[in-house]
Specification:
The structure holds two protein chains of two kinds. Chain A is built from eleven helices and no strands. Chain A is an all-alpha fold. By secondary structure, chain B is an alpha/beta fold. Chain B has nine helices and twelve strands. A six-stranded mixed β-sheet of chain B has the order 8-9-10-3-11-12, sandwiched between helices. A four-stranded antiparallel β-sheet of chain B has the order 2-1-4-5, covered by helices on one side. The longest helix of chain B is centred in the last third of the chain and has 16 residues. The chains are: A mainly alpha, B alpha/beta. Chains A and B meet through α6 and α7 of A and α2, β8, α3 and α5 of B.
């Protein structure tokens, strides 16, 4: 028998708002660090020096080839046993952030690399022929163009990250899932509280979906200007993203 | 013709250039000398090595043996204990900044306007002050006939317009030498003329130019020297009259009969 009143009771409680906030900031920091790690890895991976590309490839293989859950458990439970000196530094927060960031870095590396290689090789040639050196050409010419290919998958990665944070429940971090589990079992309303958690996940991912659409539309060079758009589409059509010129 | 400003200084000298792509030899002992103010046009069938030769001159392609000098300075390599070693990127970049290169596919930076394309390198490579560069850039865009397109993005420009912006972008670096790699080959026929006009004007102003092209009319009118390449070697070279009206070699004659 499903108790809606319990759902209502917890839905806008400080407890769950705080847990949702935890989910959000862990996702944001992990994704951000993941992008930075991924960027460095991608540049290392595409380097012509093996002493850069091989470690990068090893890292990517390692972190994409094993489950994130196992990486998290290894870090939180395994490392302190083997390296007692690290114990003060490994908290549920640091373990979650590090595990999520390092793992995400491996996936972002491939996304960034795909973005970089998607840029016409003629661009780098033009940059070099003007006397630009590699770092300058990357910064001013290649990466800005790579961004256009990187942003959509990056948006999807963040969507995933919001939900992946639920893994932190296995090390006792009070994000949405663990909060629902602990308080749910305490009050025998396991099911109802997981519904509440689901509600918050949906809010987070849906809002992000709208932000993602907005960003992608803004990055489209063929998009219609505001005036052109108003002349052609209704408000609903514009909101649903029909403003992209094909 | 534009011989009036040739004053004997060797702008480009290529000695016995050899280049392989795997088992294929694309340059088989090329010797080339271009003096300041000269306009040299290289013609030949595709696969002859003419584009590769051009790209070797500004070290966009490495060479397997031989040396290339830009105004007396060897590009791409330096001698270490009598052997040739690839030079540092900084040196190569510096030499490249003085050699303008115009690509067949324009290669404008699509995320920048025409003006931003032109000012990018002078500001970030030569570290010249922005206001000054902007002024010069506007003048250059005017010179190629695109003053009103300064704030347009490349994808809004026609091929001929994009190529003219590309020429302005190369000129913004005040190069001592301009290399044109089939600059009009990717253009619709009606747009070819506007680009050739700009190139002709540059030649009249005394720019040293090496032009790889299929535009025989341009070669005849503007070149000081025409070089015919085929199968990785220079078959024949001479004045436009010599090459077009009186070709000596069979292969030259065969090629010209197909084109003209």
């Amino acid at each position: 028998m499903f108790r809606w009143d319990i759902v209502g009771q917890y839905l806008f409680s400080g407890l769950f708002i705080s847990a949702a906030w935890t989910t959000l900031w862990i996702a944001v920091i992990s994704q951000t660090c993941g992008v930075i790690i991924g960027l460095f890895l991608a540049l290392m991976r595409t380097s012509r020096y093996p002493w850069l590309s091989l470690p990068a490839r090893f890292y990517i293989w390692l972190f994409r080839g094993s489950p994130l859950l196992v990486q998290l458990l290894l870090l939180y439970f395994g490392f302190p046993e083997v390296f007692p000196g690290l114990v003060p530094y490994i908290t549920i927060y640091s373990a979650a952030l590090i595990a999520f960031s390092f793992n995400e870095g491996a996936y972002m590396a491939e996304i960034v690399r795909a973005g970089i290689t998607s840029v016409d090789p003629g661009q780098m040639e033009a940059a070099k022929s003007l006397g630009m050196r590699y770092p300058l050409a990357m910064r001013r010419v290649i990466l800005p163009q790579a961004a256009r290919v990187i942003v959509p998958p990056l948006g999807n990665e963040f969507n995933n990250m919001l939900k992946t944070t639920s893994l932190a429940s296995v090390i006792g971090l009070f994000e949405l899932t663990y909060t629902a589990q602990v308080y749910g079992s305490q009050s025998f309303s396991y099911f109802e509280l997981l519904v509440v958690a689901t509600f918050y996940y949906l809010i987070l991912t849906t809002v992000w979906g709208y932000i993602q659409s907005y960003i992608e539309r803004r990055m489209d060079p063929n998009r219609l200007t505001a005036t052109e758009l108003k002349a052609q589409k209704s408000w609903t059509q514009r909101m649903m993203g029909f403003g992209v010129r094909t | 013709m534009c011989g009036q400003q040739i004053n004997g200084i060797e702008m480009v000298r290529a000695d016995k250039i050899v280049k392989h792509f795997g088992s294929l030899t694309v340059l088989d002992g090329i010797d080339l000398t271009v003096k300041r103010g000269q306009v040299v046009v290289i013609i030949g069938p595709s696969g002859s090595g003419k584009t590769t030769l051009l790209r070797c001159i500004n070290h966009l392609e490495k060479i397997d043996s031989g040396r290339i000098y830009i105004e007396g300075e060897m590009i791409g390599y330096r001698e270490v204990n009598g052997k040739l070693v690839e030079d540092r990127e900084a040196t190569i970049a510096r030499i490249r900044s003085q050699v303008g290169f115009v690509f067949q596919r324009f290669n404008l930076f699509p995320h920048m306007t025409a003006l931003e394309n032109v000012i990018e390198a002078p500001i970030h490579v030569l570290h010249q002050p922005k206001a000054e560069v902007k002024e010069r850039a506007v003048a250059l865009l005017e010179k190629v006939g695109l003053a009103d397109k300064a704030d347009a993005y490349p994808h809004k420009l026609s091929g001929g317009q994009q190529q003219r912006v590309a020429i302005a972008r190369a000129l913004a670096m005040n190069p001592k030498l301009m290399l044109f790699d089939e600059a009009t080959s990717a253009l619709d026929p009606e747009l070819v003329g506007e680009v050739l006009k700009v190139m002709d004007q540059l030649a009249k102003e005394g720019m040293t130019m090496i032009v790889v092209t299929h535009e025989m009319g341009f070669a005849r009118e503007v070149a000081d020297e025409v070089i015919f390449m085929d199968h990785a070697v220079i078959v024949e070279e001479g004045t436009p009259e010599q090459i077009f009206d009186n070709p000596q070699h069979e292969r030259t004659r065969a090629f010209l009969s197909m084109i003209l």
